[in-house]
Every structure is written in C-alpha cells, then in structure tokens.
Amino acid sequence: MRVDTENIISLSEKDSTHELQEYLSSVTPEQLTTVITNTALKGKDIGALIKAFFKGSPPSLPNGVSRRALLYQHCISLCDSGDLQTEVASDIMGLLMLETHSLPGPSLAQLSSLYVDAIKAGKMGNGKSLELFPTILTALAGTKALAYGKGELSGEEYKKQLINTLCSSRWDPQYVIHLTTMFRDVPLSPEELQFVIEKVLRMFEKLELQEIPPLIYQLLLLSSKGCKKQMLEGIIRYFEQQDEQQKSEQIEGENLDVEVQSIPQDQLRHVEGTAILHIVFAVRLDHELGKEFLKTMKASLGEPSRVLCSFSIAQLLSLSRIQRLEEQVFDFLKGSIIKCFKDEQVQQGSKFLQDLVAPPCSVSTMILETVKNSVFGWDHVTQGLVQLGFILMDSFGPKPGPFGKTAEAPSSSVRSPTQLACQLGGQILLEGFKMHEQIRGEILEQVLNRLVTKTASPVTHFIDLLSSMVTSAPMILLESSPKVMETFDQLSYLPLSTVEGLLKAVQPLLKVSMALKDSLIIVLRKAMFSSQLDGRKSAVLGFLLLLKNFRVLGSVSSSQASQAITSSQIQADVHSRYNAAANEAFCLEILSSLRRCLSQQADVRIMLYEDFHDVLRRNSKLASSIMQTLLSQLRRYYEPEQDLLPPLKLEPCISAQGDHVFLQEPLSHLLSCTVHCLLWYQGLHARRPNTGDEEDDDDDEDEGGFQTELQTMLESVTRRMVKSELEDFELDKSAEFSMASSVGVRNSIFAALLMGLYEVLIEYNFTSANYNKNRFEELLQLFSRYQKLCEIVKEKAGKSRASSKAPRSLLSLGFISSLLYALFRDSTQSREESLAVLRGSADFMRYAVGVTVHKIQQLEETGHTDGPDGHHADKAFHHLCDITSVLMWRYTNVPPAAEDAGKKTGSRSVSVLCLEGLLRVFTTVQQRHPTRLAQLLGAIDVMEEEGGEAGDGLVEKLSFYLRQFQRSLMTQLSGSEEDFSSREAQLLVGVLAVLSCRLESGSPQLEQMITWTLKICKETSFEDVALTKGLLSLLFSLLALQRSPVAELWELCQDIHSQLGDIDQDVELEKQSHFNIVCMKTAAPTTLLVLAQVGRLLDEVDWLITQKKTQAALDKGNADLLQATGQQDRVLKAVTLQLGTLLTALHELLQSALPPGACTDTLLRDLSRTYGLLTSLLKYYIQLCASHQSQLPSRLEKLVKLSGSHLTPQCYNFITYVQSGEGSGGAEKKKKKKEEDAMVAASAKVLRQTKVVPNLIFSIEQYEKFLILLSKKSKVNLMQYMKLTTSRDFRINAAALDAVLQEQQDPDSQQTTATQTPEQSQEPKKKKRKV
Fold first, then answer.
1. Are strands 146-148 and 151-153 parallel, antiparallel or unpaired?
2. CB under 8 Å to 470, separation ≥6 — which residues?
3. Locate the FANCI solenoid domain: which residues (predicted)?
4. CA-CA distance, 524 to 504, in Å (whole number)?
C-alpha cells in the first residue's frame, strides 16, 4: 500500500483522531521512514506531516509510543545526514523538541543511548540533531525511575551516568564544538559541569589550531554555569604548552639548520590574540568571570611563575583596559614582577637554596616575549604594555636622597630587585617603541613630560630610554620634533644632570634637523643670561656639547669624536645638508658666546675649563681660538715682570660681598686646562706628518705664537714658583685658616688654589722635562713647597676641628699612570740618573701612590675622574690597567719591611699604599666593568719566582693572583708580632674577598680557597679585631658560594661560650677551641658577625617555608601530591636540619656571658625570629593535616624535642641574666662612672628590653600555642617535650621590691636600712641564678 501524505495531513485536520490512528496503524515502519524522508527532501509539508504523526500516535498507547520513538530515531539520523535544507532540519528539530517531554522514560533512555553511541562511534554527521539532545536529557532528568542494569536509577542519576559515560568516551574532534554548544542548554550539576569542562579542555590538543577560538568562545558561554577557574587555567595551560613546543621546535630547527615547525608561529599568535579578545569580551559581560580570573592569578602570587606566561600576561594587559579591573591588574603585575626578582636574588645569593629549589622562569623574559608577540596584531595588548612600562619605571626608579639630591649609585653588576624592575619597564617601552608605530608618539610624549616635571627626582632611567629610542628610530623622533622643541624651552629650569643627559640623548638629531638645532641655540642663548646659576650652567653645558659634536673641516679624527648614527638616511643628510665648513662658523659663534662665561661665577668657569680639552681633541681646528682664549684669560693673573715674586696674582681670584668671601676665578683649573690643551697640541704637531701644504704652514705661523708664549710663561711660572716662599702668598704658619672669619676663608681659598697650581706645574714639568735631571730637581722643589703647604693646612684644620674635605687632586689619570711607571718600573739606562732624583724622595713616591689611591676611589664612587680622559670609560680603564700592573709589581717586589727603616713615624709605607690601590682597583672593576676583569688581570705582568704564568681564562688568572695574595697574607701571619701590620693584613683579606667572589660555585679553586681560609681562621691567634672580622666575613662569603655555613657557626658559638664563660659563674667550662682566631678580645665582635650570619640563614629558612606553604595552597586539591610532599620532601628535611643545627648554636650563645648591649639585643631578636620560623613550620604541618591524615615526620618531633630541651629553658635563664645586669662585670669600677652616663645607659637599656624581651616571650608562647594545635590535629603529643612556664613574674625581683617598700615605710631608720641593704641586694641575685 502506498502511503498518501496528503491523506495523512487531511485526516490530522479533523477533530477526531480515530481514523488517523487506524490509518497510521496500517503503515509499516519502512513506509513511515520512506514518506518522512521523501517529504523532508522536497521540503514541503514536512512540518504538517510530523504533527499528523504525533497526533495519530498518542503516548498513552503502546503502538503510539513505538511510532513516536521510530519517528525520533529516523528524524535524528535524517537531520545529521546533511541532505536536508537547513531550514527544514531546524523545523524538524523544533517540532521534536515540543513533543520530547511526552515520551516515556524508556524511550528517552533509548534515544539518549542512541546519541551516546553515535558520539562514541563518531557518526554524528553534521551534528544538527545535537540541538535536540539537551531537551532529551532535561526530560530524562525529570523521570522518576528508569531500569539500569539489574536495578533502577532515578532520572537525575541516569542523566549523570550518561554524561559521565559521554565524557569518558572518545570524541571525534570535529564534534567537540557542537557538543560544547549542546552542553550549554543542558542543566548540569557542579560535578557534571566539571566532567564536561575537563573533557573539553583535554580535547584542545586534538583540534586544529583554527578551531580553538570558537571552542573557547563556547567554553566561556558554558562557564556561566560555573567552573570558571578550571576553564581559565586550562586555556592558559594549553597556550603555555603550545608556546613551549613552538620554542623547542625553533631551537631544534636552529641547531639542525632546518625548519621544524608543526605549528606556524604567526598562526599561533593570531589564534592567541583571538582567544584573548574572546575572554575580554566575556569579562565585559560577566563581572564574575573577571573576578575569578584575577582571583586565580592572585592565588599564585606567592609563586607567580606557576601561572604567568606570555599568554596570561597578554590576557592581563588586555583586561587592564576594563576600568574596574585596571588597578587590580597592574597591582598584581607589579607585585608578581618584584616578587620574582626578589626570589631570583635570594636564590642567586645562596648555593644552599640553589641546590634545593629549581630556579623559576624569568618573569622579565616572559614579559618581553609578550611584547615581541604583540607585533602579530595584538593591538588590544599594546596600550597595557605602555602603561605597565611607565608604572614600573615610576614605581621602581631611583628615589631622591636627602634634600632632594641623589648621590650617583655605583653601577654594580649586581642589581637590586627594584632596579631590575625599573630596567624591565624601560625594555618594555623601548621594544614597544620599535615595534608599534601607533604608540610611539605617546611613549615619547610621556618620557619628555617626565623629564620636565620630575625635577625633584632622578630621571636617569628616562634619559637612558630616550637615548635608546633616538638610536633605534631617529627618523621617527624627527617627525615628533615639535615635542622635543617644547622640552628645550624648559632647559633653563631643569637640573643640570637632566639637561646633560637630555642633550646627549638627542645630539644625533641635531646634526640632521636644522630646526631642532636652531631652537636649541636660541634657548641656550637665553639661558646664558638667566638669573639662575643653574640656567647659565645649562647653557655652557649645551654649547660645549655642540662644540664636541660639530666637527670643523680638517679636524683630526678622534675615537671619541664620531658618534655612530644607526640610520643610513641620517648619515646621508649629514653630508648633504651640513658640511664641515658651515660647522666652522657655527662653532666660532658658540665660542664667542662662551667667552662671556669667563666673567661669571667660578662654577661656570670650572665647567668651561674642564671641558675645553675634550672640545679641542674632538675639534682640533678650534685649537687657535681656544688657546688664544685661555692665554688671554691667564694673562690677567700672570705677573710679566720676571724678577717679581710670586709669578701669579691670587688676589684677583677672589671676590667679597660684605664679610662674605668667595672664589671668583678657579686659577688652578684655568692653568690645568691650559697645560693639558698645550700638551695635547704639542703632541698633535709631533705626530702630524709634514705635508708641505702652504695653508698648513700659515696655520702653524699663526698658531706658533701662542704656543711659544705659553711655553715661556709656564717655564717662568715654574722657575719663580720654586723661588717663592709661602710667605709671598701670605700663607705661612701664622696664617689663619678658620672658616668662621673672612681672613680664614680667604686663606683657605688661596691654599686650595696654590696646591692645585703646584700639582699642575708638577704634571707639566714632568711631561715636558724629557727626563732632564735639572727639571726633575725643580719638580721636587715644587713638591716640597706643596708638601709644606699641605702640612700647614692639615695642622690648622686639626686645631680648628674643621671637617672640610681636602680639595681633589688636579693630576690627570694618564699622568699618574706615566709617573708610577717611571718611579717603579722604568729601567731605561738613559733615564736612570734623572729618575734617581725622584726615586730618592720617599715622600714624593708616597704622594704619587696616595694620589693614585684617591683617583681610583673617585672612579669607584662616581664612575669618572677629573682631568683629560677621566670621563671616557675605555681610556680610564686602560689607564687603570697600566696603574694596576705597576702597583702589583711594586707590592710583590718590594716588601714593606724593606722600607720600614726610612719611613716617617705615622705615615704608611708605599707598599701598603700600593696594596690599598690594588684593592680599590679590583673593587672598581668588579662594580663598573665586571666583564673586563680578565682583561685587567691579563694586563698585570708580575714575574713569579717560580716562573709560573697565569692562564688564559678568567678562572686561571683569578686562581693565579689569589695564590699571590694568599702567600703575602701567610707571610704576614707567620711573622713575629713586631713585624705584623694589621692594616696590610686587612687589605690583603679585602683583596682576597673581592677576587674570590668571582670563583665559580663547585670549582676546585673555590674549594681550595675555602679550605685555606678555614685553616687560617683555625690556626691564627692574633688578637686583632679588624682582621678577625675580615677573615670571618671572607669565610662566610666563600661558604655561601659552596654550602651552608651552619656547621662552622655552631663551632664558633662553642668557642665564644668557652672564651666568655658561662652565665652561671659557678659552672666551670672545659676550654675548647675550634677557631684560634676567637679569643677574649675578639669574642664579642665575632658574636655580632655570627648573629648576622644566623639572621641570614633564618631569612633563607623563612623563604623556604614560605615557598612550601604557597605550594601547598596551590596544590590543595591534590591530596595525593600533598601527602607525598609531606612525607618525602627534601626541602622540608633541609629546613628541619638547618633549624636543628641553629638551635644548638643558639643554645651555646644563650649560656655565654655576653657583654650587654648590641650582642644581647641581637641575640634576643634572632631568638624571636627563630621561634617565629618554628611557628611557621608548625602552621605548614597543620595545613597538611587539614588536607589529609598523615603521620608527622620523626625529624619534626626531634626538632620540637630539641627546642624544648635546649632552647626555651635557656631563653628564660638568659633573660634573667640580662635583666640582672650581671654581664656588665667589674661592679666596683663601674660604680665610679659619672651618674649621668649611668642614668642614660640605664634608660637606653630599659627601652631596648621593653621592646625585645616581650616580643621574645610572645614568640615562645605563640610557638607553644600552635604546638598544642598541631598535637590535636596529628594525634601526636608534641607538648610532652615542652615545659610550660608556670609564672610570668620573671621580671619582678620580689626581695628588691620588699626592700624598697620597707625604705618608704620607715624613713627614720636609715642607718639600719643601710646596714641591711647589702644582704638584701645579694639574696635576689642568688635566686636569679637558680631560676
């Protein structure tokens, strides 16, 4: 029988369904499926047909149920086939949804199983039918009971079982998105939702990369039901794994020189960017999702490297554009960055921690990767990057010091966490500036704004950033030249250091932009007439910088003159738009402006004099103008009459306003500048080949005049200065140098000028003498005048107790290098006779080395020195190498004992000064040039007695020179006490400390150094406090590179106890000595050193416990992992052993009769910290016990037992000892002290104890409180090892209190009281010892 579709539809339109039911009953299942298929394919009447089938198949009849079930099954497969039009399939699904709730439970279960089987088999077709599955599952959950196996389940349980089965089965990757979309409409319990999200997250790795963003979008919609944290962590973990895989493939490809890429980098970055946008969009709509994301991140703040990666950082920066989250995001990033840097610093400083904890991922690397990745269209991230960069630089940049000034911090190779964070901010902005055109203008504007507005704070970090920006993208900055010009307008109001940095940074732009250069010239000319001194200084600084960098045609090339400009376009512009001939007029115009400065304040003139030599060397064609300027200025103070003394007029060099006298002309700087320029000019002509050019000859004729005149003038000044006595300058021994009177100020200024003049003339005469004996004799006469003046000034300063520092030496670093070589190393036969004159003066040699030490100290503190080449790092370093070579040779070849006989009383030997210079050099290079230490050591050519030579590598060179200094120290220590020089020994220890810190951890050289230092400390018995401190500090610094020094600390504590005696005077101690260096005199200083190390070890233990507590909190959900952690953790084992050994060491100190004051206070503070750490450890185990039932480690019980037996009882005894004042000793002598001093000391002591002692008692009681709590949690009685204190009255002396009360009640019986007082005062002391 043929099924008539129209007939079925017409029958369904009647009110009665009887005929329709009869008709449908006659239709076979095959016919039913055929007519449904044919009608659906035609797309007509399918809706009416399905409705007719539903109407004619009432769910109350068995055949109606079966017909409906068949209809559902066939329509599901038909919709999945993909043969139907989309609209038709949607209509069918809609009709089926309407009737789903009328199906009985077994039919629903059958349909559900059909879906599950299809999903397992991967036969879902196009997945259209999944729209119906949520309705089926919802209806299924509403049924009361369903047969399952041999029993029954409720509909809800059956649904849960189905979902569990579904999530446990294999999913075809092409259906993952459909299934995730489907689950959005399914009512899920939290447990079911967790199953689903876990399954979807596991499927990420099986999908194509381009399918990830739509799946994340569906996941985000699904997460509105819950499990937000799990979903977000899964997404972050997936992209982190993809990044790691991509990196490893890239590295592998580089190693193999082939491209190995399973995932193209650009495709991965675009997918990540889309995913980030999806999450940001979802967070904008769902506030809870944003809160959960930040909550997830903040939960890991203790260990940020576990959640931070390039993707999560980009996600956070994108979320920062949402106003309500902005502050939280940047606070979290700031905290995470500084925490990571601090953790890195803690680990780098201790080999003990490095062996226990793996180094975390570098947060700076991850953030810079985010910047690098943002080039792939991550516009939503770039704004956050800019903001983060400036926040880091503002928050962690250098801070102003006292009075708004900041001393230049030494550029040490080891940077603090705040410096690293600030540096990271600069790197973020620089990389962002290079990569993203749209943010360049904003970055430049904000940098320039900060240079102008932050006048009270240092802005060196912003200047460095601006300089890097100019170098990396000069043409971009030229487009923003109006902003730079606006900044120029503020130059005269900015601090001098800011002006210098800014002009140096933008200097390459001035060569190519006439507008910028003209703008700057106008600003500088205005500043030249500023009413503020700093404004005029800024003008001079700017003009000098221009002179150095705009070279005139024909100027000799200088290594310093050429500044590299990275853009080839700029180089082309330099040659096309500006030529050297035009620069000459420009430079001469600037020079005429600078001549006006020669009538201004001394500070302005000094700036000119210090930089003219540099200008001359970079721009040699300006020599004539500069030399004529200096000559005319010098003539003002020169006495032309050859017979008159003195040859220089000092009176015009000072000015007076009322009683105030001040320096007007820094004559010594003027002469120094003239001498250095003249010497350079002479050297230039000596090196220049004779070309025979007429123009050059004309120049020589013009310039020869000033050269001859200056030489004559200097020779005359030298000759007459030798003849001039100090009385000629009114500076004899009777002169007044008090800074309180105008005469004293005048004389002090004259003395400073005169000392500078002597030094300049010494340098000139040595350089131009050409090793002439007579000239050297004149030089020594100059020096004797200089020395005599120094002694007078020093004597007068000592009498007046003036704290003014001696003026800095004007000798140049290059001259000092040449002088030292001539004095100590020059063995040329022709110079022997002349050099013998200088070498015969021990005072002069001592002066030469002393000035060297001061120069190196200046280099160490500021990074530069006065004089030529002082500001040029490379040349200064080469001079340093030459100086070091001479100092090393002199120290190793001429022992101090050989010069003791001719040494003045109270003055240091040349060898000791050489050693001090070596220490300064090594410290300076370690701080300023850490990567060039091998080059420095290579420059030292010390001839060893054994003929050995240092190796090529840094470690070999270090080892070689360490042995040299070890031998020198052994010579000192093995000699007699009369020959022992404490200063030399201390310097040797200092040198060993500086050099040995560069030894590699675990190297045999370091092991040998530790063994040697330990042997010295154990066998040396000199009672020298400073040497003891130095040796022990060296030992501790070496041990930190290799292992924990806890065993040595314990032995030292035993020695201290043995030397100082016990707090109970009745106890006789067995004399034992592990370290002979510890004696009665050095015990107290050693105690402070030991306690400082104990504090450092406590810091390390604290850090480890904090790491473990954070890790336990992050792994809270994984009980198995926690249990394994609690039982077999080597970190916890190390913490317990470390604390145990520290307890035994503190036990020794608690019994020692320490002197009152710093020792007892520090010990009590360290004890408080120890109990605090013990409490933290207990809290960690309480945290573990709360997560699961586990047995406490036996080592923890031993530690608690040790604290109960060795620490707590001794703490109370020690408190009693400290408060009884027994540690002061020598009671009778102490009583003779002045009453006021005793009262002040007593008040300070009481104030200290009121803070320290209660804190310790509180720490002990907190420890006992948590012991009780852990005992309850773990069912282990830990309190059995502790003896609880039964009273808190250990501070109250009952007998003394009774005595005072009795005195107040019976004032008339003073004599009786007086006779009883000794007895009453003795009794409490006995009681205190028994407590």
1. antiparallel
2. 477, 505, 506, 508, 509
3. 66-283, 381-544, 810-1035, 1050-1298
4. 15
